[in-house]
Every structure is written in structure tokens, then in C-alpha cells.
Protein 1
Amino acid sequence: MTPKEHLTSLLKLAVANIAPGQEDTIELERPKAAGHGDFSCNVAMRLAKTLKKNPRELAQAIVADLPASQLLEKAEIAGAGFINLFLKPAAWAQVVHTIRTQGGTYGHSDAGHGQKVQVEFVSANPTGPLHVGHGRGAAYGASLANVLEAAGHAVTREYYVNDAGRQMDILALSTWLRYLEQHGILVPFPTNAYQGDYVREMARAIADEHGDRYVHEPWRILDGVPLRPDDELVAGGDAEAKMQNEAHLDGLIAASKRLLGAEYPYFHGFALNEQLSDCREDLIEFGVEFNEWFSEKSLFDTGKVASAVDTLKKNGHLYEQDGALWFKATAFGDEKDRVVQRANGEYTYFASDIAYHANKFERGFDRIIDVWGADHHGYIPRVKAALIALELDPEKLTVALVQFAVLYRGGQKVQMSTRSGSFVTLRELRSEVGNDAARFYYVLRKSDQHLDFDLDLAKSQSSDNPVYYIQYAHARVCSVLAEWGGNVSGLEHAALDKLTSAYELTLMKRLLEYPEIVVASARELSPHLIAYYLKDLAGDLHTYYNAEKFLVEDEALKLARLALVAATRQVLANGLSLLGVQAPEKM
RNA sequence: GCCCCCGUAGCUCAGUGGAUAGAGCAUCCCCCUCCUAAGGGGAGGGUCACACGUUCGAUUCGUGUCGGGGGCGCCA
């Protein structure tokens, strides 16, 4: 039992005497000012109104009824009716033993009661390298999943692979066109196809392997394809030209499918495989792994999309207009009705997403968390609408929106544009600032807030850089323990009552807070709380380090101090691991 | 026009229905004969955008105003 739990139970006993049935309103908080005790309770003020009593008198009565305790030093009444509780130092010191005993699981709890939670994140189209925007979703989702797990949830990490649909067709087409280029067949490359060099590389690999097997004459390719509009009009944002541009692209896709025939799936599959394995590798290097890579295509293949749409139709939630099939999303709180099947018979992305979410519910998760880029926020009402229409509980779904990250280098915004292909990839970022700094910086802000990512700062190996600041604290303790040379497990019998300085008490209090931080972080879906906690903890350690020498002559004092810093090292390592950041022994 | 995020120290940002609102950077002063100075101590710096409301109590919750950023396809 933690001191906080202990004090809460004492207060409950006292309150039960005075106001039976009100015990559950008790909450303890940690006051900011040291003079206000280690914990503070506002229950007297909260009960004053219903009991029609003066809050200070109520507080007096509660304090008078507090059972005696080994850990409680004193209880004071202050301000408008606060009950301020002061603990004996021994109450704090026990945390050092707790940490040594629990090791890597210190901070874990059963707060989530084993609830089955799915966290779906990244889910980028496998049509090219991950960029820095995906990186934030990856870092956030991975840390969030870790935090939820530590707080006692059964977590499934999932990547939704958009392997069906037009974007993949565009990638397959792009690859084929580059392949043709390499055989001297010059079909003008569409502006809205994938421009990146990785497409040329895939084309080269196919050419190396299969020679000219997939070559077709240019006039046959362009036969019947809507004409390409003027590029300048498209770039200028002319609506008609843009539509024409898309029609041109769709025409080329149709041509590639027609001419390649049974070979088309080869191009499609090759490109998908290449991009997906590249993405998977990228993420693994970034410390991000998934339990499930869920294929969108499989939803079509197993008829799940059709059956989800059928269910909606059967329940009268669909209607036809302009040849398309519309979902009455407005009946369930969305602002517009949405198309699920286009006039050309193709299902929309929304249709497969309905099937996907229905499938998530079928798999029996108690809670589903979708991590999406903030640009999708308008999408939430329609997905929730679909859930309600399918008689599924929309409260089980939480969409965590991740705002964009903007890179800064030399104080200047790094310009990015997907269109021109001039985006910075996650790989480039990782190689520039390192995995640890990237992981840490991504979660240093609340996820729903714009992130300014300062590349120079993330790279700097100085105290300005919070990653190094925290890692350095860990390395410092390792260094002290190495200097001492003893076995950490031998610190079991350290006399912790030797730890009485203000530095030591501050540190112990901080260590004791860690499990609460993990729980709060899970509850708020906010891994950044861990990052801020670690900065504070590292700060406490550095202050202590500078103020006191640990390897002192007095053997008992030395062992007590080493036990404390070893516990600090453990918590630093535990917290860093939740964020996917290394805890180095040397720097 | 509609929607989302934000407005807290010079800058970048935490924070909370509670008491005297914090950190880092920047500025100024100071600390290695010492377990890693990638560190530490101290000083200055605030109308928590503004108004009204709810409350015993609001920087926190609600409404409105102003200001900044972003998003709004039969795209995914």
C-alpha cells in the first residue's frame, strides 16, 4: 500500500463517523507549497454545504477522528478548510525498497483491470516512405500503447494497411510508367502520380528481373485515355482542369489493367510488398512494432464490406441518389450524408472503414483507440454515425487526433509538400537527430497540439536537450554504481533511515509519484506526462548529485544513498522505456 | 461559412475546480583538488488574451468577443 492509499483509508474511517456514506468523495492531492504538507484534502469544504456546517469545524472533527498511524506525522487545518497531512520520512523511504523489489515493473498497475484495448496507429498508405508526420503518429501511438499496457490494459497494436483502393492503383501505375521509361517508352508521367525516386527504384528492380516482359506500345496505352489538361491550369487550382487530371490518371490506370491483364496484380503486389516492408523496417528501427497488420483488401475479399453495407441497407440507413449509394449520416449527428458506393459501383474508403470498425467490435475489444492525423477530424462524426447505425456503442471508440509537426532548422521552417515530393522522410529525420531524440521530441507536446520540432536542438548534445539531460542522469548513476563496484542487489539491507536531507526526501517523493503518473498518462492518453515527469526526476537527481557525495566513508550512509540512486536509475529506465528511448550506461 | 487546436514569463511550453501559477531557453551573478560541468545554485521576469456566468473558491468548467494556427472532396 502506498502512503497515499494509506492516508486515504485513514480519512475514510474518520469521515465515515461524521458523514456516513460520503467516504467516497475523498481525494488527496499533492500541494504545490511545501508548507501545505505532503498531501492535502479538501473533503471538509466539499461536504460543508450538504452538511450545513462550517468547513473548518468539519475539518477539525475529521482530524480529531483520524486513527493513529505509524506513517502520519501530523495533520493540520489550513485556509478555508484544507486538511494538510504531513508524513514521517520513513513513509517515503519504503519506496526505495519497493522499487528495488519490483524493478522493471515498478510503476505498473492494474488500473485498467485487464481491459482489452486496441490502439490503431500510423496506418499510412503503403505508397511511399513514411514522412515526419507519420513519425509523430508512430511515436505517439507506440508510447500510448506502452503506457496503457503498464497501466494494466491488454493492448493490441494494429496497423491498418490500405492495400485496396485507388492510391495503390496509382502506385502500381506509377511503377509501370517508370518501368516503361526505362525501356524508352515515354508516356508523359502524370503530375498526380507518385513522383518519388523510390518508384524508379522499384521499376529498375522489375526491369532487372523481368526485362521487357511488361512493355507495351505507347499508342496502345494512351488509346481512349482522357486527355491530359494543361499542367499550369492544374497547378493554378482550376477545378475543371483538376478533374480532367484525375480522369486522365484513372484512364491510365484502366489502360494498365487492360494491357497488363493477369500481370497487373504482379505490379500491384510488387509495389505493395516493397513499400510495406520498407515501412515495417523503418518502424522497427524506430522501436515501433505491431501485433497486427490488418489488410483493407481482406475486408473486400471476405465480403465484409459488402455485408456491412447490406446491413445498413437492410436497416434502412441507405438511399440512392445520382446513381450512388448514400449513408444517412445526418440521422446520427453528422453534418452531411456520405457516399458508400459510387455510381461506378466502387465502394468508397468510408465503406471499407465501416466494415473495418465493425470488425474491430467483432473482435471483442472493450475500447478502440484510433490515432489519426488531425486533418481527419471531420471524419469522426461519420464513423461514429455508422457505428450507431450498426447498433454498436460509439462510446467504445476514441479517436486521438495528432496534430502536425513542423520542422525547424536554423530557426527556419523546413518547407514540405507531398505534391512536389519534397517531404522529409522519417528515415531522414531519424538519421539526422537519432531515434532517441526523435521519439522523445515527438511526445514532448500534447498530441492534439501543433508541434514545432527544432532539429538543431534535438541534435544538440547539451543540457539544452531534454533527452540527453534525462539519459545523462541515468548514465551518471550507472557510473557511480560502477565506481562503487558492489552488487546492487546487496543494497537490500541499506538503512534508509539515514536518508534525511531535503534532497533525499524530494527524490523519494518524486519516485513515489511515478505510478500515479503512469496511471494519469494512460487515463488522459497523454504520454507527454511521462516525458515531463522524467525531466523533473532527472533534475532532482542532478541537484542531489551536485549537493552530496554518494561514495562517502560512512558505510551505512553510503549504502543508503546508493540504494536511493539505484532506485532513481530504475525509474528513469522504466519511464524511458515507455517512451521507447534508450537508457544508456555511459555517455 | 462550418469544424478542430491554441492564447500562461522576452522565447518554447507544462500545469491544476483550491492556498504564494511552474520548467527549460535567453539575460545577469556564482559553483569542479570532488562519484561524468552533457551538471548544479541564485536573481530578475506574469492582468494565466478579454468579458460575463456557474462555484465557498475559476488560470482550470460554460457562453460570448478578439487574436493566431490548421482542416473542410462521389480523395485516402
Note: The mean pLDDT of chain A is 90.
Protein 2
Amino acid sequence: MLSNSSKYAIKAVLYLAVNSSPKQRILAKDISVPTNIPKAYLSKILQELSRHHIVSSLRGPGGGFYLSDENRAISLLEIIRVIDGGYRLTSCMLSLKDCDEEHPCPMHDLVGGTKAQFVENLRRTTVNDLVEDIAEGRSFLPL
Amino acid sequence: MLSNSSKYAIKAVLYLAVNSSPKQRILAKDISVPTNIPKAYLSKILQELSRHHIVSSLRGPGGGFYLSDENRAISLLEIIRVIDGGYRLTSCMLSLKDCDEEHPCPMHDLVGGTKAQFVENLRRTTVNDLVEDIAEGRSFLPL
DNA sequence: TCTTTTATATGATGAATATCATGTTTTACC
DNA sequence: GGTAAAACATGATATTCATCATATAAAAGA
């Protein structure tokens, strides 16, 4: 469904969303331990996210990663796009070049509605939305 | 979403569904060309499908691959299971071990409905159903 | 300005997936 | 039975993805 890297990215962003603030930076290794993401690999992902302004960071003593208010308004789809590229989620289920709404392939027709809706949900849902879900007990974050 | 191998498997099965019958066997290479699937790789997939009775085959001159009536009643989910294993499609979006309906993770809650519905569609839809869709013009098979 | 603490950049290794190549078995037909 | 046509089995290579390791740059504080 998603690459491992994207899952890690979302987990890390959610961890930051819950535990960090512009004044409360968090080290990569302090995300790595509770989330069970290998430290070196997580660092690489965080840097990629930082470069694309999905997360914020500060170097030097007292530095680390955190989310700005802008970061919290970012949608899940944007995170996935940065890591997996734009194609993986939105492409045709059978990878047919000419498949579209006009000319749907058999699978497209079958799952088109649900998949399109799924991607649309990802586009519409921000980091903040998920944090609210957690805060209000509608979902939980088992790290 | 699906592995490449699963996509190839479904394409090949659909090709057989439209073009083969127990008396009209088709060679791997004659599926390979119109579907743009590498011949040697396709052969391996067809053999895997044959071993699991997803497709039927006959060796020797005049032999080849085809679908029996039983094969046509098989669901897409079974095909995907044989190639990708049971886990890939149904597992939690964030690969969290403890995520379930009682304890949904944030992504689960977000896409749970649509994904569950999607998998259920795959479970319910047979090869025959897709062929009907093609025959009646509700979808097409761009090879 | 020196040292420490952090992120960043780059490259190396390992694992999984996709692809290719070659040999073996079965079956039909002469 | 011998021969050719096919599936079947097995292993080798390549490519992508996940993981690790090491060196560099920036920032803070002494």
C-alpha cells in the first residue's frame, strides 16, 4: 500500500505532532526509540522531510526536529508524495497507461470509487486533524 | 498498492479469461506479447498460478494455459493472495501490530472504511464478473 | 575561537523484488 | 520408440528499496 519509508515518515511526523513544538525540539534518536524506527534510517527520512519543509529543524546544541504551525497544516498525501513520489498511490491498479474515468480498466471500475475516495481523504486530512483524533480518543498511536 | 507480480497475474488471467477455453489453450509467449509482460517472468507467474489451481495448463504439443469453469469462479483476492501472500493488502496502513477496530491507529480510522470495502470488493469479485464487465462495455482491457 | 552538540550529505551494504537463462519432464504425433 | 512441443523447475542476475556507517557543516556556549 505505502512504502515502509512513507509509514515511517508518517509515524515520525505524528510523533513530532504530539510531542514537539517550536520551542520543544526532539532529537532523531529520541523519536527512533519509542517508534521502533532504526535511527540512521529515520535520520535520512527526517532530512528528506526537512528539505521539503514537511518538518522543521534546528542544528546545534538544543536543536532537533519539530513541527511549525505551517507543518501541522500539511496533508498526509503531501508527506507520502515526498517519500514515495506522486505516482505510487494514484496510478491505475493494473498500471495501464490509458486507464482513466472515460476508459476504465476492469479493476479501475471495481475499486475506482473506493480508491479515489481514499486518496481524496489523504489529500484532505492534515497532521493536525490526526492529532485531534488522538486527543479526543477517536484513535490512538501505539508506538 | 499491489506488487508488479500481482498486476501481471491479474492481467494474464484476464487475458486467458477473454481468449482461452479448455479446448483453446494459449502459450505463455502469446500472452506475453499483447500484454507487454516479459515472457520468462510471465512463465514463472503462470506456473505459480497453475500450482495453486488459479489457472489450468496442459503440457506437450497443442498444450498451453487456459481457464476452466472453476478457474473463472475464483476471486481476485485469491489471485493476489497466491502471489503477494495474505498480508500485504489487509495489514494496517502503518504496520502497527496492535491496530484493530477496537484500537484503531489514526490512519486506520481515516481510511479503514474505504480500504476494508476495497478488500471486500476484491474478495467478492470473480474473474467471470470482470469478463462480463468487459463484454458489456462497462470497462475495457487495454493491453 | 574552541569544543560540543546537533543536523546534513554522501556513500556502502543488505534484503527483497523483478527479470533472465538453462535444463528437465510430460505429452502428442509420426 | 523417437522427436518435437510445450509446461515445469531451478538457479543466476539485476534493480529497487531498506538499512547502516562515516564524514561534514552549522550553531551554541564557554
Note: The longest helix of chain A spans residues 106-124.
